[in-house]
């Protein structure tokens, strides 16, 4: 299975990089994982609704340019579907069973995802009703993908 995480912005925090690197290493036994960073749109703190949409649109165009037409897309969004770790594991297993070997998880920037990205998504996923920094979501997502493979293989980890 080829899993891609397309995310807005560069990861600067060393502790997050170390955690992500550890899970990427662990995941290599189960799947190929690529993390693609697209540039975030520079914008002032105070934005009008129109300016926010423009920022999300530009970031969305960069995201969509990285996704091939045969990729199953799961967008991370607060309004997405909440799942247990076991449910996510089952979804990944079913995608593999039905020949969907290319999966992309999308993590938007600080303003979220543009409607065009949400329309391209085959599914949505929410980890919580809470807001998390998008950099931290990378670590949480990679850990959950790793956990999913362990669950699907019946290996001890998720208890």
TrEMBL record:
Q: Name one GO molecular function term.
A: rRNA (pseudouridine-N3-)-methyltransferase activity
Query: What is the main EC category here?
Result: transferase
What is the purpose of this protein? Answer: Specifically methylates the pseudouridine at position 1915 (m3Psi1915) in 23S rRNA.
Q: Which family is this protein grouped under?
A: Belongs to the RNA methyltransferase RlmH family.
| Protein name stated in the entry | Ribosomal RNA large subunit methyltransferase H
Xref: Pfam families: SPOUT_MTase (PF02590)
Q: Which PANTHER family match?
A: METHYLTRANSFERASE, RIBOSOMAL RNA LARGE SUBUNIT METHYLTRANSFERASE H
Native source species: Bacillus aerolatus
Report which reactions are catalysed by this protein. Answer: pseudouridine(1915) in 23S rRNA + S-adenosyl-L-methionine = N(3)-methylpseudouridine(1915) in 23S rRNA + S-adenosyl-L-homocysteine + H(+)
* Keywords of the record: Cytoplasm, Methyltransferase, rRNA processing, S-adenosyl-L-methionine, Transferase
Keyword presence, Methyltransferase: yes
Q: Which Gene3D superfamilies match?
A: 3.40.1280.10
EC number(s) on record?
2.1.1.177
Tell me which residues bind S-adenosyl-L-methionine.
76, 108, 127-132
Location within or outside the cell = Cytoplasm
Chain coiled-coil ranges: none
**GO cellular component terms, A-Z:** cytoplasm
The main location class comes to cytoplasm
HAMAP family cross-referenced by the UniProt entry = 23SrRNA_methyltr_H (MF_00658)
Q: How does it assemble?
A: Homodimer.
Q: Say yes or no: keyword S-adenosyl-L-methionine present.
A: yes
